[in-house]
Amino acid sequence: MDKHVSNKIGVIGSGSWATAMIKMLTDNQSDKEVYWWVRKDEDIEYIQSYKHNPSYLTAVEIKMPFENISSDVKYIVNNSEIIILNTPAAYLKDALKELTSDDFDGKIIVSAIKGIIPDENQIVGEYLTQTYGIPLENILVVGGPCHAEEVSQEKLSYLTFGCNDLKKAEMVAGFYRSRYINTIISDDILGIEYGAVLKNIYALAGGICHGLGFGDNFQAVLVSNAIREMEYFVETIDSTSRDINASAYLGDLLVTAYSQFSRNRTFGNMIGKGYSVKSAQLEMNMVAEGYYASNCIQGIIARYELDMPICNMVYQILYNNSPAPKEVNTLAKKLS
């Protein structure tokens, strides 16, 4: 870090994953000061009165100084040296719109966002570097497998912290480690971030197939093909040495494809059962990142002329209104 190392950490976002982050950071016994950006003032008032997020992970007790919770993003960022970005990718630009490059100067920025910025078609690390001039060595990404709901129940979970500077990855990981959180360190920032984007698309595919009535045998083959497709994609984008069977890639894919808590699988399941995209979005209270990612990844696939049949199937169903049974049956003939 360009400035002195600090224990002041700011979390940007107030959904379920952000609330889980607040729990992890405040349960950890290391010396630090946590700040939290919550978008709605009425939610802040509720948290201050009842010590719980009114909308997400409502059973989690908020254990932090309430004066450190604010809807003023500049206040949170200016009081923190490590910034955890934890909004849906589609809403990140709006959350940061009041900030400039000067606000981020010398700070470590951690992306806990598993999606792509839609208009720019960029992963978060690329967007931060291009828009705010943040050096890549000051950017970290957080990978799973780790669902917020299980964090709220304090079930043993694992987080992977990726950064070009492993000392910074280790430092930030230390703020999360606890009796129910284990951490892994990696220098594969691009692979972890793109893998997190892709696994949401594959979970959507699994949900669509489940909604259509395909069973566990087919799902196993689908996921087996998905991890190979992911490896093909990330190795084309970035030649960094990685083990695609590691937790941040295969592990995160498995939990997102199979877990009852997976919003992307749930969204896909609704599509498979005949919901329109709009009706599925309206019924869900949380953002399915895979929906936006499908459109963005398709542009990258076209640019590199990649053969990615699972991603293509999801895109055809979601954006070209192609019948799901037709697309899945076409895909089934390509799987091995």
From TrEMBL:
InterPro entries, per database record: 6-PGluconate_DH-like_C_sf, 6PGD_dom2, G3P_DH_NAD-dep, G3P_DH_NAD-dep_C, G3P_DH_NAD-dep_N, NAD(P)-bd_dom_sf
Catalytic activity line of the entry: sn-glycerol 3-phosphate + NADP(+) = dihydroxyacetone phosphate + NADPH + H(+)
Record keywords: Lipid biosynthesis, Lipid metabolism, NAD, Oxidoreductase, Phospholipid biosynthesis, Phospholipid metabolism
EC number(s) per entry: 1.1.1.94
Keyword NAD on entry: yes
Pfam families: NAD_Gly3P_dh_C, NAD_Gly3P_dh_N
Domain Glycerol-3-phosphate dehydrogenase NAD-dependent N-terminal: 8-167
The Glycerol-3-phosphate dehydrogenase NAD-dependent C-terminal domain, residue ranges: 188-324
Keyword NAD: yes
Primary enzyme class: oxidoreductase
Family membership: Belongs to the NAD-dependent glycerol-3-phosphate dehydrogenase family.
Name of the protein this chain belongs to: Glycerol-3-phosphate dehydrogenase
